């Protein structure tokens, strides 16, 4: 074999060896971000439930819904839903929830309003039932559903 052929063959072998020794060098996963650790969903809650702790699920839900209502009633929220051509609840009333840990009628209505505008992580419309289960918690961002 000529020197030129040996040089080309040797370079090719070194390249192949480099690919084998450096896993993920040419794969799409080499630069992928790691997944967030899974978060366990809070328990399913509905009208009549209550909690004593400020870290309880009803408190968490009421705080999350207040943040969503605040964003929704801002210009960004209105523009977002208008662009999606989604019907939305009448926010002419004050929908701010009292964060008291009691899942009453006002919290239930706020949940139904939220559910009517959102989908689960698989793209399916949430059931507008006023019950906060795994799919609604996942949509709110409190867990991976």
UniProtKB/TrEMBL annotation:
<dbReference type="InterPro" id="IPR036365">
    <property type="entry name" value="PGBD-like_sf"/>
</dbReference>
<feature type="region of interest" description="Disordered">
    <location>
        <begin position="37"/>
        <end position="59"/>
    </location>
</feature>
<dbReference type="InterPro" id="IPR036366">
    <property type="entry name" value="PGBDSf"/>
</dbReference>
<protein>
    <recommendedName>
        <fullName>Peptidoglycan binding-like domain-containing protein</fullName>
    </recommendedName>
</protein>
<dbReference type="InterPro" id="IPR002477">
    <property type="entry name" value="Peptidoglycan-bd-like"/>
</dbReference>
<dbReference type="Pfam" id="PF01471">
    <property type="entry name" value="PG_binding_1"/>
</dbReference>
<feature type="domain" description="Peptidoglycan binding-like">
    <location>
        <begin position="97"/>
        <end position="138"/>
    </location>
</feature>
């Amino acid at each position: 074999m000529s020197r030129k052929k040996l040089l080309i063959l040797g370079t090719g072998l070194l390249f192949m060896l480099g690919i084998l020794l450096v896993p993920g060098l040419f794969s799409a996963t080499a630069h992928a971000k790691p997944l967030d650790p899974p978060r366990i969903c809070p328990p399913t809650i509905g009208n009549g439930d209550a909690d004593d702790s400020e870290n309880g699920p009803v408190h968490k839900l009421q705080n999350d819904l207040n943040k969503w209502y605040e964003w929704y009633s801002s210009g960004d929220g209105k523009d977002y839903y208008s662009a999606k051509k989604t019907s939305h609840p009448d926010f002419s009333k004050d929908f701010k929830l009292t964060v008291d840990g009691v899942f009453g009628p006002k919290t239930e209505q706020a949940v139904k309003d939220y559910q009517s505008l959102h989908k689960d992580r698989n793209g399916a419309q949430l059931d507008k039932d006023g019950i906060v289960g795994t799919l609604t918690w996942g949509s709110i961002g409190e867990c991976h559903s």
